[in-house]
Structure formats: structure tokens, C-alpha cells
Amino acid sequence: QIAENIINEEAKVDALVTEAFERSQKDVHIAQVFIELPVSGDTIEAYKKIHAAWHELKNGKDFTRVSTEYSNDAYTKENGGDLGYITVFTLPYIYETAAYNTKPSTFSAPFRSKIGYHIFKNVEERKPLGSVKAAQILIAWPPNPTEAEKAAAKNKVDSVYNLLEKGTAFGDLAHAVSNDNASASIGGQLPEIGIGTYSPAFEKVAFGLKKPGDYSKPFATAFGYHIVQLINQLPVETDPKNIEAMAALQEKVKKDNRLTEAKKMMIERQMREIGYKQAPISKNDLWRFTDSMLQNKKDLTNKVNDKSLLFSFAKQNVTGKDWANYIMSSRAASPNFADKKYTAFYDEFVHQTAANYYRNHLEEYSPAFKQQVQEFKDANLLFGIMDLNVWGKANTDTTGLKAYYAGNKNKYKWQRSADALVVSIYNDSIIAPLQQKLQQAPGEWRQVVESYGNQVVADSGRYELGQLQVFERTNFQPKLITAPVQNKMDNSTTFNYIFRVYEGGEPRSFDDAKGMVISDYQQVLENKWIGLLKKKYPVKVNMAVFNSIK
Predict the structure, then answer these.
(1) Cα-trace Rg, the chain
(2) DSSP class of residue 465?
(3) 0.85 exceeded by pTM
(4) What DSSP element (H or E) covers 257?
């Protein structure tokens, strides 16, 4: 836990949280030119194409026209590159950063992601809309619907809308007719709707509703006809001093891929510090070794094998066997393993191995971590010594305990107390019949309690009255059943049956006083031990300095 916190600090999590907060204060309308990379083969044509598009844009050509002409992704081409509004966490971090680093009405330089080349345009910005809770009724049509199917859906949704206008409850209609199976059973309620999570047409309607309870007229999207009802509006937090909101934002940052990217960049910066050295191996030989290993064939002519050094850190060598284990586990875990190049896997292997090495040797590179580890070691050592000389000894030194009790009996006297049965119930409906049975046969309380199974837990003993859970000013007397008291911690209910009341003053037996005797005896042992330590390691106080700081 400490290592994770230290590494997060070094990865500048606080800066990422601040950045996320600042980005949350505005929504950005973006468009893109997108050249999708081929699944396999050369990417040079995609590179040439995105730079040709960039050249056209720099010469003043309309962004929508360029996106339509150059983009090879059907959705991007069809929409002229328009992606609608986004906010923080809507898109992966690389896209979000490109969008927020581009000024309004300007476009970015080409950049590459895992899936292709992009040019982003910041179309415009606005104040953040936050998010909404909403419900919907969906009258769906099939993929590639005919005009007749669209008309049938339109007639049905108009009928549903008329029922809403006449006062039928939205949730009842959603449950009865909505084709959104995920939400129909809960009255049409949808997960929280943020910017960029649904289609622009759907979001425009959902965010356009003004008051909770308002619902829209029917409108169409690619899925069919919708009617949306507003449940609640959730504005964006604007106060960076709101501790609870910033803590929630930090949790989102920690779960987001931006933290992974930040840690990766941190490790790249620290490669020299941890002594990373690449061995002089041929990547072609390494890929031959990888092929033979994945095919379970030995290539005795290859220069790379299990024992070959691939790279090293200050105190660790990484060999072909380590790489083989990594690539084999990656193949087992990744359904798209065949679509990914060895180069990408190897880069991930280097970074992951470096990150693990850094974590495992963090004490050597982080003074703060080293100090905290030393504090834990010292604390554990002190705990062990205290347990040996005080806590454990007090529990096991029966002769010493009894001797201490015999010499201090007057300290261990009963206050006003009672023999009582303490009953905890986890089903309030059985309280009355249970109390009636106990009143009729208190001596048979064990059988009575067992008859209720795990709904009831009970124990008897002598308790000082202050230990019993009761309302104030209870008049304790034999055969009293105290009023039930609710326990907020576990939602149980407790009452007591009083067998006998003692006025107090009589001495406790050793067994009754044992817990208190152990506590007091521990203090005696600790005082003796500290006295011996002071004799062995005398402390001298410089009184002149001490008096000067009073």
C-alpha cells in the first residue's frame, strides 16, 4: 500500500487530478480526420494520407470536406468527422489531451493512436453541462429498417406519448412497452448520462429537459424512437476545495488509463536510474526464437535461446526465458494476440519488467519509502519486545496474576450489577413471541433461543448495570424484560432478561476480575521493565536547554 502511494506520488497523481478538474470545467465540441491503420501490413500509406489531409487543412480547406474526403472510417466519413461534445473521462486520455490542448476553431497536428492517425479540431467550447439521471421508453426498430417498420414504430410511440399526456405513469409504461430490456424492468431508469456517453441526438434531448419529471416528445435515433424523462440534474463540481468531490475525482483518475500512461512515462524517465541496459541482440533472432517457442519447436541454429541476456537492471538480468514466459501468458490472456506485433509486446514487456523492478527495489530509490519501511521495522521490533516483556507475559504468568490479585482485591469490587440474559434479534417480527416465551420459562432460555435458529443470539452472565444496553432510567428488578434497543451498526435489536439484581460492593472473584487484573498487571510489568531500561541506559537531561524552551 505504501509503495503504491509513493509510486502514485512520483507519477504526479495530484497533477493529474488537478488537470482532470480543470478540464471538467468546460465541454469541448470536437471533430476529426481519421485514417484507420490496416490490421497487418505497412502503415506508410496511412501516414502519407493523414499528412496530405493536414496539408489541405493548413492551406485553408474546410475541415468537414477534408474529413469526408480523407477519413477511411465509415462513421467519421458519414458525419464529416463530427464527434460531438466531450468532457474529461469521455475518451481515452490520448484523445482527451489532444482535444483539450487544441484551441477553439483550430486543429491539432496529426497524432497516432493504437488504431490509426488522427487530426482533431476544437469546433467550440461551452460551460459544462454535468450529467443527468434519466429514464427512457424505447420503441425499437430492427437493423436497416424499412419505411413500413419505421412508420409502425412511429404509430406506437405516438400512442405511448398520448398515454403519458393523459397521466399514465412513465415508469409503468416503460415497464410495459419499452424495448430497452436493461432499463424496462426498473421503470426505464438509465445509468448516469454524461457528455459523450450516448449519441449526440439523445444527449441533446436529455440535457434539454429543465425540471425533474419533465419528459420529451418522441424523437428518433439509429435505434428507434425514444421518449426521455428527466429524473435529476447533476451539475459539475466547481469548488476545488470540496474535499469529498476531489477525493472522488482522484479515485476516477486512479482507475483511468491516464494513470497507467503517467506511470509508463515515469518508468521511462527512471530507466537510467535503475540501470537499464539493452543487450546487443538481434530483434530478428529474438522474433525467430519467439516463433519457435510459440510453435513448441526448438531452433538450434538461432543465436537467441532461453539463457540469452535480453536486458538488465542494476541487480537483475532478464533472459529469453523471462520473455518466453511473458509472451506465452500474453497469448493465453489476449483474444486478439495474433493481431498484435511482437514489437508492441516487447515494449510492454520491457516497461512492465522495469516497473516491477523499480517497485521491488523502491527502498533504494525513494528516501520517503525507505524511511517509512524503517519506521515499520522499528515499530514491529518494539511490538515484539513489548509482547515478550509485558503483554504476552501478563497473559501467561498465572502465578504473578493471582499474586497481584490477592494483594489488590479491594480494587476489584462489583458495582451495582445483575445476572442477565442479553438477547440480540435480527428479525423484529419475532421480538414479542420470543419475550413471551422467555417470561413463561426463563430457565429454558437456551432451548427457546435455539428454536429461532440464526435469527437470535443470546448469552447469560453477570453484568454491571452500566454494561447493559438499555434506555436511561431503567428500574432494574428480577423478571424484568428491558425495552428493545436498535443497533445501528448491524440493524439488530437487543433486550435483556434480568434474573437477579445485586446492590454492589462485594469483591469480584479472580475469574470475574481477570480482564482488569491482566490490564493492571501489564502496567506493573511495563513500569518494572522501563525501570530496568533506565538503569541500563541512563538518560541525562541538559536542564539549561530544557528550561530555555519552556
Answers:
(1) 36
(2) G
(3) no
(4) helix 257-270
Taking the C-alpha atoms of residue 96 and residue 118, their distance in angstroms, rounded to an integer, is 12
The Cα 136–Cα 123 span in angstroms is 30
Cβ atoms of residues 174 and 136 within 8 Å: yes
Helices 257-270 and 13-24, axial angle in degrees (round to 10): 140
The number of helix segments (H) and strand segments (E) in the chain equals 23, 15
- Phi, then psi, of 312 in degrees rounded to 5: -145, 160
User: Which pLDDT does position 9 carry in this prediction?
Assistant: 81
pLDDT band for 176, please (50, 70, 90 cuts): very high
Helix residue spans in 59-124 (DSSP H): 63-70, 74-78, 93-100
Place of cell 445485586: 502
What is the predicted pLDDT for the residue at 269?
Answer: 87
Give the C-alpha distances (Å, rounded to integers) separating 335 from 330, 405, 492.
9, 70, 49
Q: Is 142 exposed, middle or buried (CB count within 10 Å of its CB: 0-12, 13-18, 19+)? A: exposed
The DSSP code for 414 is -
List the strands of the sheet with 116-126, edge to edge: 82-86, 27-36, 116-126, 111-112
Q: What angle do CA 224, 225, 231 make, to 5 degrees?
A: 120
Phi, psi of 36, deg, nearest 5: -70, 135
Residue 525 in contact with residue 463, Cβ under 8 Å?
no
User: Sign of torsion, CA 191 195 199 202?
Assistant: positive
The helix (run of H) or strand (run of E) holding residue 288 is helix 283-294
DSSP H helices in 101-239 = 147-165, 170-177, 181-184, 200-208
Mean pLDDT, all residues of the chain: 92
For residues 475-504, give the mean pLDDT: 92
> C-alpha 290: how far from its chain's center?
37
Q: Where do runs of H (alpha helix) occur along 105-238?
A: 147-165, 170-177, 181-184, 200-208
Q: Which residues contact 510 (CB under 8 A, 6 or more apart)?
A: 401, 402, 405, 517
Between helix 257-270 and helix 93-100 the angle, nearest 10°, is 90
Per-residue pLDDT of 367-419, as tens digits, reads 989 998 999 999 999 999 999 999 998 989 999 999 999 999 999 999 999 99
* CA–CA distance, 18 with 44 (Å, rounded to integer): 38
Nearest to 441 by CA among 497, 501, 482, 485: 497
Among 306, 305, 524, CA closest to 411: 524
Report the C-alpha gap between 223 and 203 in whole angstroms. Answer: 14
Of 167, 195, 191, 176, nearest to 138 by C-alpha is: 176
How many Cβ atoms from other residues are within 10 Å of residue 256's Cβ?
A: 18
User: Burial level of 77, CB count in 10 A (0-12/13-18/19+)?
Assistant: middle
* Residue 139, helix vs strand vs coil: strand
Rounded to whole angstroms, how far apart are CA atoms 498 and 480?
A: 5
The conformation of residue 430, written as its DSSP 8-state character, comes to: G
| Full DSSP string of 492-521 | EEEEEEEEEEE-S-SBPPHHHHHHHHHHHH
